[in-house]
Amino acid sequence: EADLAENSSPGTPILQLRAADLDVGVNGQIEYVFGAATESVRRLLRLDETSGWLSVLHRIDREEVNQLRFTVMARDRGQPPKTDKATVVLNIRDENDNVPTIDIRKIGRIPLRDGVASVAEDVLVDTPIALVQVSDRDQGENGVVTCTVVGDVPFQLKPASEGEGEPQNKRKYFLHTSAPLDYEAVRDYNVVIVAVDSGSPSLSSNNSLLVRVGDTNDNPPVFSQAVLEVSFPENNLPGERVATVVATDADSGKNAEITYSLEASPLSSEAPGGIFSIDPDSGDVSVQAVLDREQRDTYEFQVTARDKGVPSLQGSTTVVVRVADRNDNEPRFMQDVFTFYVKENLQPNSPVGMVTVMDFDKGRNAELSLSIQPGDHDQAAGIFSIENDTGTIFSTVSFDREQQTSYTFKVKAVDGGEPPRSATATVSLFVMDENDNAPTVTFPSNSSYTVLPPSSNMRTVVATVVATDADTGLNADLNYSIIGGNPFKLFEIDPASGVVSLVGKLAPKHYGLHRLVVQVNDSGQPPQSTTALLHVFVNESLSNATVVESQVARSLHTPLAQDIAGDPSYELSKQRLSIVIGVVAGIMTVILLILVVVMARYCRSKSKHGYEAGKKDHEDFFTPQQHDKAKKPKKDKKGKKGKQPLYSSIVTVEASKPNGQRYDSVNEKLSDSPGMGRYRSVNGGPGSPCLARHYKSSSPLPTVQLHPQSPTAGKKHQAVQDLPPANTFVGAGDNISIGSDHCSEYSCQASSKYSKQVRALRPA
Prior knowledge:
Elements: E1 2-5, E2 13-16, E3 30-34, H1 39-44, E4 45-47, E5 53-56, E6 67-76, E7 83-93, E8 101-105, E9 112-113, E10 116-120, E11 128-135, E12 145-150, E13 155-159, E14 170-177, E15 188-197, E16 204-214, E17 222-223, E18 227-233, E19 241-244, E20 247-248, E21 258-264, E22 276-278, E23 284-287, E24 298-307, E25 314-324, E26 332-333, E27 337-343, E28 350-354, E29 357-358, E30 368-373, E31 384-386, E32 392-395, E33 406-415, E34 422-432, E35 440-443, E36 449-452, E37 461-464, E38 466-468, E39 478-484, E40 491-493, E41 499-502, E42 512-522, E43 529-538, H2 545-555, H3 569-609, E44 649-655, H4 666-671, E45 677-683, E46 731-733, H5 745-748
Parallel strand pairs: 1-7, 10-16, 18-25, 27-34, 36-43
Antiparallel strand pairs: 2-5, 3-6, 4-5, 6-7, 8-11, 9-10, 11-14, 12-15, 13-14, 15-16, 17-20, 19-23, 21-24, 22-23, 24-25, 26-29, 28-32, 30-33, 31-32, 33-34, 35-38, 37-41, 39-42, 40-41, 42-43, 44-45, 45-46
Organism: Charadrius vociferus (Killdeer)
Protein name: Protocadherin-7
InterPro entries: Cadherin-like_dom, Cadherin-like_sf, Cadherin_CS, Protocadherin, Protocadherin/Cadherin-CA
């Protein structure tokens, strides 16, 4: 709320509205716009959308609008935008920009036309001759007006009323005569009236009235009371006397002889002759008809007294007859049946309706007492109450349309007359529906599923979602939509019927369980909604219902934001295949590197020892030697070991178990999942295949050649090479998986040409 001086120049700042948003970025950027604002607000004020500053757009005149009330909305730029609003009350502060206005009007029998008033010379002092109305459109001190008569004239201003509730900026004065008038002395008076307000600086204005004094009879008849009020009971007898009026005349003779007559009051155009009459000599007023206060409670007419002078003078008084009440009417309801419509869920002790009852009598005869009368089934007992003064009906409970749709009861009114009179009316109360019930899905249940063959055609009906709503009308008008679980757009639901149809072609990747998240919304305001799960199992048949049921059970604990649609391993299998191909290529590369390293060592050893003359350059690596036993090392009689051949070391595979222990055999290593193996050169023992027996200790390193004609030439090979006894080769098996699919048949199995058999090493 703020105050603004009227006539403020455009651009004048008024106030700044500020809103806070805890978000950041675009979501925290706030803009300000007018909310509920009239056209005049938008025309007169400007609101900066960014800063929230409210300023003057056009000059505001308080006399046209003294207050502007509107709302300002703050909203962020997020999606969806969030808003808040504030009410702004702008009070326009008055400025002293209006001069007082003076309006002179006719009053009584003094004629006034075109600024000229005709006053008889025999008017009494202090007789009002005109009504002066002074007003100032400003407010407060700026509108407080002081009015005076300027000059030495026999006239003065007097307030028309002494009431404190009279507005300060609107006042009425009577222009009275302050001294006797004499036509023979002064015929015309120019009366100047000046009005000054109390603003700073003050503003003033003036107006003038020309008073012309007329030469008339000096003493007309005069009544002792200008207004005579009389109380007269209703249901009277015709001809009864109501009152007696008396007028006097200061003159004498014929000028003092008075006759009385009835005339219509200036405030009423109805002639009183048909109801009242007056004796022309005595002034007795009688009633000629039976009065009914309920038909009319006040009669007003004028009694005129005329003298018999020439010209004749007259005086008048107003007679007001007020008809006294008698209890001759019973209470009456405006309607025999009152029908009210209330919303359900109304807070207890809230008003639900108002009955209107009246009694044409008055006073105690019209004082009514209202009460609730229970119906035949006592529906209203303890539920409704009524306020005696206003007839407002209150409910002590909150209504639920789904339990009871209507209530019927009676209201009784009793007056306070003697004897008392009463009346009753029927109240029918209908409970209007509120959207307080969310839709209920009756089919399918969240834990159920339906089987859909992959060969199903387009537009095949998969299932029908059935929902009900306990409300009525638009609040029970349901529409269906799929809000999740349909990433492939295979399914579509009819918004009105809830029929779910197949609209996409099924592919192998769609096989499996689909969880459709269906939302059912009603059309109420605000709308209510319910979410249901529809499970569709795409497969030719249902071979294992337990597996499907377990998948459905798992989906019930899966967040709705996560889609369950088809075979989740379909795409994963493609990724795994790509990974396997990459792993195989890597293993083959490692194997080739190992072969290159072995051949390089072999070549260096050969160049060191040389070849014997006449000895074959090539020996069959896979041909067993027939004299292995002769070359085996022996112990002498003294227990000493014989000299070991020069090349007695072989390459063996040794791996560690996960717990740090060693494997007893290669097969044991391969029986486990592929792990990290180690390769090292050790002396051949009883548990390891010894290839040194196939070679002579004095022979140079053999050369291994794979001929195209050999049976194994078309397969993958791994050469096992003896190394010098002083050389130990330790290789890390981090880059080699023994259980890999790339382990060749020859690298994992010893040839039948060996004297000892080695177990086959095949892929795990």
